[in-house]
Amino acid sequence: MTEQTEVVVVGGGYAGVTAANRLTKRDDVSVTLINPRPAFVERIRLHQLVAGTHPATVPYRDVLSPRVRLVVDAATRIGGGRVTLASGGEQSYDYLIYAVGSGSIDPPAHAYPLSTWEDAQRLRAVLAGDVPTITVVGGGPTGIETAAELGRRVTLVCAGELGPYLHPRGRREVARRLAQLGVTVIENATVTAVTCDAVRLADGRELASAVTVWTAGFGVPDLAARSGLSTDSLGRLRTDETLTSIDDDRIVAAGDSVAPSDRPFRMSCQAAGPLGGFAADTVLARIAGTEPEPIAISFVGQCLSLGRRYGLFQVSHRDDTARGMHLSGRPAAKLKEFICWGTVKQLAMEARRPGVMSVPARRRELVP
Fold it and tell me: Terminal CA-to-CA distance of the chain, rounded, Å?
């Protein structure tokens, strides 16, 4: 009887599911996915869940290989070949893929974060009534899409400029569309306090706000740090270019929670999926006794939904910096919907045919 290699994947998001599915390429690998929720969350649709236009979840049976064992629980500590679970149990492993994702960074007491399915459900319930004023804090993709999706008068407060990752042409298009939707944009403003009915800015202004949505920045769970592993200043697991922990070569990381060579990628599903594939390939190479390949990812652009009938696709260079080209309007909205649909479809394809997912990419240059 062939001896089985036990691989545990912690985290069932885009990176974790991709990794778990890809690991089933080998019949002698037993894969366990640990995730605190029983369904896959389409995080890129959470703003739609808030507005009631999409449930933002998919059954794991639709995206996960039947060869992957799902454990609905939370990991509280990893290391030494064992995962300690919140329920009190343990799960042993030969290799572990760390894909715990990211979340909001300590929002103020009276603000509602929007980084998890539970956050979105809570916010949806709050907005179901008559809410006269809404403030969204954060000028990144989550803030922009949430403000546009709500379809009512909203104030969007940005610490810097609106959509700083966009090319100026794309930024002007987003600003124009938000204005059409009745969204007031305040740029270069620092929020100093949030109360139950107002948002105070550093320049002395006070904005009436019955509900304040906080999308200003993301952090990662502290599981790696709690487990005694090396992390960067944000808490991401520090790895080499094969995504292997610098402390433990049996731990490989992927997604928003990894900092390869202390040069992490932008937190996004666009990076998470390929990173999940590379993490699985690293583990499979180690099992086969071969040398893992270094990561190689190329970006193509950033897609934003600006309501259900309008969008913007910002074309980028391979290194994720914006180019002067963008697509906007209804075609961009359809493209964004296709990307959301295609991301889930790709996970399902990887579940049926592990290893099928491939993206054109090249290795990044590391400057000493």
Answer: 47
- Tallying the residues shown for the chain, one arrives at 368
CA atoms of 218 and 103, how far apart (whole Å): 5
Q: Which pTM does this prediction carry?
A: 0.94
Whole-Å CA distances, 62 to 23, 103, 355: 17, 25, 17
Closest CA to 25 of 297, 366, 351, 323: 351
Of 368, 363, 367, 366, residue with least CA distance to 292: 363
Query: Which alpha helices (DSSP H) does the chain contain, by range?
Result: 14-23, 46-51, 60-63, 117-127, 141-149, 168-180, 223-226, 269-288, 330-352
pLDDT tens figures, 38-93? 999 999 999 999 999 999 999 999 999 999 999 999 999 999 999 999 999 999 99
Tokens of 121: 């459900």
Kindly list the distances between the CA atom of residue 81 and the CA atoms of 7, 138, 349, in Å, as whole numbers in the listed order. Answer: 10, 40, 30
Which are the contacts of 130, defined by CB distance < 8 A and separation ≥ 6?
none
Question: Going by DSSP bridges, is the β-strand pair 206-208/198-201 parallel, antiparallel, or unpaired?
Answer: antiparallel
3-state DSSP percent of the chain in helix, strand and coil, to 5: 30, 30, 40
Helix axes 269-288, 330-352, angle to 10 degrees: 20
pLDDT tens digits, one per residue of 250-259:
999 999 999 9
Strands 95-98 and 251-253: parallel
CB 13 within 8 A of CB 20: no
pLDDT band at 217 (very low <50, low <70, confident <90, very high): confident
| Residue 60 backbone class (left: φ over 0; alpha: ψ -120 to 50; beta: rest) | alpha
Concatenate the DSSP letters of all residues of 188-256 into one string. Answer: S--EEEE-SSEEEETTS-EEE-SEEEE-S-EE--SHHHHTT--B-TTSPEEE-TTSBBSS-TTEEE-GG
Could you tell me the CA-to-CA distances from 281 to 2, 26, 60, 105, 172 in Å, in that order? 21, 11, 22, 31, 41
Sign (positive/negative) of CA torsion 304, 48, 114, 68?
A: negative
